[in-house]
Structures are given as structure tokens and as C-alpha cells.
């Protein structure tokens, strides 16, 4: 892979500023953040640049690591960490004393199969410190209903790519979080029919 082949998402370019506006105050007192499903790493670079007090640990499935490493090599950021190979269904490659007091994930829970979403929350429950912050960005359904026509179309497209992918019901997400001791603090409206869910581990 060369620099001209860097994975790129236009959606990330569009949503990184609005996401930063929401997460900046939430991560004000956080020190060590783990991102799950870093993808193109456009978010990681942007957020690490604007939140220099926070160590931003990237991670993703093995196949994404080369692209992430290449994008990280384009910037010199002391607080941005090389990606961990982290598949939520496997043992998370974290030290016992990783001191993770914040976690972030964007556009992942509708890609993951249901069992992976459960594994994601098990991992959060195991590795996020008490009083830690969890922010989840993406589309969600409410009481089984889409919030927009475009989300309904997106869900059909998702199922065509992978029948196990789907926009998740927020009620299920809140329940999985609760089982891991996480409380929903806020559900922010975001552009393009997305949400940003803020949880705290009690
Ligand atoms: C649509 S991409 C989103 C990437 C990026 N966060 C963004 O907002 O553009 C979905 C991401 O979920 C990750 N993902 C899917 N299944 C996963 C799993 N089992 N464990 C960890 N990450 C997973 C993919 O590797 C990919 O990075």
C-alpha cells in the first residue's frame, strides 16, 4: 500500500468536527482512551490533534492495521498510539493495568453481528475503569423504528453486504451497557441521522 491508496471515508471528513464538539467536554478529564474499530484512522488523527492531553490508542481487526499505520505515519503526534490488533470476539490485547478511562467507537455496532456487539460490551465491561467514559457514534433505531428514510435504505444496503449487519435498537444497546455497569448519560442528536451515545461506567 502506498500513500495514494490510504483508506479514506468522506463520511469521516464530514462528521469529525461535529463529533469533536460533543466529545471534547466529555473527555476533558480522561487520560487513556481506547478506540475500537479505528478504520481509516481519520477520526483518530483529528481527535488526537485536538485533544492533546489524551493518549489515543487505536485498534482494529488485523486487516485494517496496515492502512492505520500508514495514516498515523503522516502525522507526528506524541499522544497517538500504533494500532492494536483487536477483534472484539477475541481476548483483548490489553495489559491488566492499561488504565483505560475512556473508550470511543464510531460506525461499528451496525457492522458487527449481534454476537460481536455483545462481545464488544463484555470487553468494555472488563477493561473500562470505573467512572470511565464510553462514547458510541452511529445510527440507531428507536422502539424498532428507523429515524429516517435514509437510515431505512442504509439498513437494506447493509443487509445486502452482510445479512448479520444491521442498525441496532437503542434499547438493546442500553440494556447490554447496563449489564456491564454502564449508565447512559446522554443521547446526542448528530448530523445525517446519527447519534452519539455517552455512557459512564458506575
Ligand atoms: C464502517 S467501519 C467504521 C470505521 C471507522 N470507525 C469510521 O467511523 O469510519 C466498521 C469498523 O468496524 C470494525 N469491526 C467490525 N467487526 C469487528 C470486530 N469483530 N472487532 C473489532 N472491530 C470490528 C471494522 O474492522 C471497521 O473498522
Number of helices: 6
Main β sheet profile: 7 strands, mixed
**Cα shape:** globular
**Name given to the CATH homologous superfamily:** Vaccinia Virus protein VP39
Residues in helices, as a percent range: 25-40%
By CATH, the topology is: Rossmann fold
Report on the architecture of this protein.
By secondary structure, the protein is of the alpha/beta class. The protein has a single domain (3-201), classed as Rossmann fold, CATH 3.40.50.150. The protein contains 6 helices and 9 strands; from the N terminus they run αβαβαββαββαβαββ. The protein has helices at 10-26, 42-50, 65-72, 114-127, 149-161, 170-179, and strands at residues 32-36, 55-60, 80-85, 102-106, 133-138, 140-141, 168-169, 182-190, 194-201. The strands form 2 sheets. It has a 7-stranded mixed β-sheet, sandwiched between helices. Strands 6-7 form a two-stranded parallel ribbon. Helix 3 links the parallel strand 2 and strand 3. The longest helix has 17 residues, at 10-26. The chain is globular, with a radius of gyration of 16 Å. It comes from Shewanella woodyi (strain ATCC 51908 / MS32). InterPro entries: DUF938, SAM-dependent_MTases_sf. It holds the Pfam family DUF938. This is Methylase.
